[in-house]
Structures are given as C-alpha cells and as structure tokens.
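Quick one, probably user error.
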C-alpha cells in the first residue's frame, strides 16, 4: 500500500511511516478485510465510510504536522485518520456527530492504545465547550458546504486547515493557512476533486 502511495505522489516520510505502521484492517469490519490495503473507500457502521488510503495520506501530507502539535479532526468515523495523526506524534482531538460511531470508535482507539481525545458534537462548531484550543492544525474529513467560521476561530495564527469544500462543480480539497484573523488573511490553496460524505449539522444521538 505504501509503495502505491509513493507512486501517487505522497513523499512525506512521516506520513508514509505512520501508514506503514498502523494496520488499516483494524478499523474496518472483518468481512471487508481483504480490501483493507486497496486504494478504495469502504463502508463502516452508521452508513459512513473510511476514506481511501491515498486520501488519508494526502490530507495528512497537506497538514504538514510536526510532533507535539495540537490537531483537531472533524469526523472521527472509523478512527483511522486520527490513529495516523497520533502515530505521527500529534495530540489529536476528534469530533464525531453520530453517537453510535463515537461510542464504538472511542472504545476501539483506546483498546488499540491510541491516545485520541474523542468528542460527540457538531464539527461546524469545533470544540467550543471544552477549551483545548487553539489548534495548530484542523483536518475536516467530511464535505463542508462553507468554511466553518468557528473552526477558523479555533485555529492558531499561522495554523493550517485542510478541508474538502462543496461548490457548484463538486467537492474540492482546500488548504487554508491562517495568516491573520480576518478572512482576507486566509491563504487558500486548491488540491483537486474529492468525494467525502457530507458534513451535516447537529449531533445525532444514535
Ligand atoms: N476520518 C474518518 C472519515 C470518516 S467519514 C476515518 O478515518 O474513517 C466522515 C465522518 O464525518 C462520518 O463519520 C460522519 O458521521 C462525520 N460527520 C459528518 N458531519 C459531521 C459534523 N458536522 N461534525 C462531526 N462529524 C461529522
């Protein structure tokens, strides 16, 4: 899998090492094990998906994470992306809106020994109730319809957010560097088309 990622242009050795060391099959249902190392998205519970390995690698590379950084993830899902960031030495805070997935994945990450702090909530709001921010990096792993202002407020000055954003032409991966608090100071770079499940409002209690 890691060789295939290199071919696809992933060259951040920290990302490649983490993806080599964290078995992806831990995060998917047994019945799909045979596909765990193919570059495809797979179904997890609650009608959600674990992203393609190449997407996880690309988002992790775009984030430019250094050990010790505080990273906020929106969309815990299977926990795989959070585990990769954890393996890269980040302090990971992850928000999921579906109670069923939140319960299951929080337990799984703890059982596997990944120290990810998991929260049930609406990622459009970030982590407002608990004050762990501001974050060095924010990664959104569901398709947002706008750049969430609350998340930009919780990002450090100089920080980076990687987010798939919907527009009329589909979904595009953006990297936003917060060079100042005002919107005019957000540097936006574009990295092509992606297809994530939608980022939905509010939390869902099942
Ligand atoms: N990072 C995940 C990808 C999961 S798919 C992984 O590695 O497996 C995206 C996830 O985002 C889904 O679990 C979905 O329930 C969640 N999601 C959608 N909208 C959300 C929101 N507003 N806040 C938090 N999570 C959200």
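Nope, works fine. Designed sequence:
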């Amino acid at each position: 899998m890691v060789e295939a990622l290199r071919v696809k242009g992933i060259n951040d050795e920290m990302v490649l090492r983490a993806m080599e060391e964290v078995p992806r099959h831990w995060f998917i249902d047994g019945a799909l094990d045979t596909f765990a190392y193919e570059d495809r998205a797979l179904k997890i519970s609650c009608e959600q998906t674990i992203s393609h390995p190449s997407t996880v690698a690309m988002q992790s590379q775009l984030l430019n994470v250094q050990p010790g950084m505080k990273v906020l993830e929106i969309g815990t899902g299977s926990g795989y992306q959070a585990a990769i960031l954890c393996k890269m030495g980040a302090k990971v805070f992850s928000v999921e809106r579906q109670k069923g997935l939140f319960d299951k994945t929080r337990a799984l990450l703890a059982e596997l020994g990944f120290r990810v702090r998991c929260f049930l909530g609406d990622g459009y709001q970030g982590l407002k109730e608990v004050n762990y921010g501001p974050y060095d990096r924010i990664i959104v792993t569901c398709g947002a319809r706008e750049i969430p202002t609350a998340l930009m407020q919780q990002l450090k000055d100089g920080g980076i957010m990687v987010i798939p954003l919907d527009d009329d032409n589909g979904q595009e991966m953006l990297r936003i560097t917060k060079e100042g608090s005002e919107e005019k100071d957000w540097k936006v770079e574009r990295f092509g088309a992606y297809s994530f499940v939608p980022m939905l409002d509010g939390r869902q209690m099942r």
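The first helix runs from residue 2 to 7.
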